[in-house]
Design brief:
single chain, alpha/beta, 5-stranded mixed sheet, elongated
Length: 407
Amino acid sequence: MSEWVRAAFVIARRDYVASVWSKTFLFFLVGPLLPIIAGLFFGTVGADVDRQAERVTVALAVAPADGAALVAARDRLAARLGEDALPGLRVVAPETPTATLLADTRHGMVLVARGEIAAPLVIGPRDALTGARGALALIYDDARRASVLGQSGAALPAPTTIATHFVAPPPSATAATRITTARIGQFVLMLLAMILAGMLLSNLIEEKSSKVIEVLAAAVPVDAIFLGKLLAMLGMSLTGIAIWGGGVLAAVALVVPASEVLSPPAVGWPAFLALGLLYFVTCYLLLGALFLGIGAQASTVREVQTLSMPVTMAQLGVVAFASSVVGEPDSALAVAAMLFPWSSPFAMIARAAQLPGLWAHLIALVWQGLWVALIIRFAAARFRASVLKSGRPKRRRWRASRAGPSR
């Protein structure tokens, strides 16, 4: 191992230990959780509202007389409870195959009801069926009571027991939920990269103002300082992600199975999480190198904010570009997003959620690695020029050569 690389790891270990074993690391762990928790809270509220507003349609593959009785019962109940409180009903031919009915999602999420009105069997995806089961039982109860009204001596029927059969969602529904998984993956990647990469700026400003950076530059190569600081903040970020991720997974496992929160990505959860970690590393190094190079040009926090704002806004545009191709992972625009280095991690994590296969991700990681090396080299040169002011002597010598020999 060369002296340059050894010096970089010494700087990385120094910064990592000083950061992780400080009291402020606790605030570092808590700080980013606040917007995440707020986003999850409002997202959950919005999801509940959307779920309540979503109309579930039940295909009644029953005898025409039973279908008419059920539709009439629903109309009576809707007049009192409201249209949104009950699933929609449509009568179909009893001989229509169940698979054909479930695949017809033009009317919303579809359930299929078969059997006699006194002993119905309802078939459909677990989430839709569980939410509509109570309302369906109410409709069947009302239809059965209406059939015995007016009959002297007839007793009211017992509450209806609905048998259920759960099936996998149709492919169109799976594709839609995988798009949701892709967008959430992009959002988490963007949030972590931008919050954690921005912390490099404040760390560098503190050391520049206290002259620590000049002491380090006198002892080790400036490029080693740059790479060491980048690796230290990457290690600190991965430590925070490990703690946050463990807490989130534990909370989700206690509340509800993950399979009921998000649709499994096309590559599977283990590969998706591993790819997400790798894409975070490449995205962080690309952003972190830029932010560190920017921070070297500034002397105050105000200058840092002024210089970093264009980069932050450009990154938001890049994320919007990658998000626009979700749902069309093989389009020409999606390929462009995968090739552009700053949007490539976001486009590829969305592809992992929607399409199986890992070969494209191996190529993308190699491509992103080449750009990481290029950006780090460029940013390190700017960092070195700022710390050592290496450009000024050359400029004076050039001017002196044009002025001619002095007399």
